[in-house]
Amino acid sequence: KAGVTQTPRYLIKTRGQQVTLSCSPISGHRSVSWYQQTPGQGLQFLFEYFSETQRNKGNFPGRFSGRQFSNSRSEMNVSTLELGDSALYLCASSLYGTVGTDTQYFGPGTRLTVL
Amino acid sequence: AQSVSQHNHHVILSEAASLELGCNYSYGGTVNLFWYVQYPGQHLQLLLKYFSGDPLVKGIKGFEAEFIKSKFSFNLRKPSVQWSDTAEYFCAVTNNAGNMLTFGGGTRLMVKP
Fold this sequence. Notes:
A: seven-stranded mixed beta sheet, four-stranded antiparallel beta sheet, B: four-stranded antiparallel beta sheet
């Protein structure tokens, strides 16, 4: 069974631009979560989607948004990019979306560089 | 709010040495505990998890962890490390309010052959 896939794998943008990242979960998985990984802040939760609805949101500004489609694929959008948005963005999917105890399977990430 | 601390940021061991990585969490309610590993150039993989029951949990590749509720700890152990265990290890928790993983800062382990 194919794992979580993320596209693109690498992105270079300039300040003020916007970017959309895509995540395809493992087949049959209904929950998709997004995380930001930086050397300074480590791994931080962005948001979780389940059945096309945002179920949880982390402590990030409104410039960060996401959505989930009926096939469980998810996209994350960052508008008005800032230098500090440079990071590895990780997507994780889980099967049941069971609150708290679901095992999350991570994708390889999208490396975003903001110049 | 919950938080996770991993006190060892870098650990260097020789092959066959025993490993123990510390993880402490802060949360007053029921937690679910995870250890993830990130090998060089690879994505995060689950090593083991604890939800309930026996506090000694066995995972893949010979790793185990013990949940000590009174100490708010979930330390990772391996009796004999191999060079291939070189990686970054992350402790994480969720609670029963949501699937959002709260991660510790990670521990970089280097195993010398």
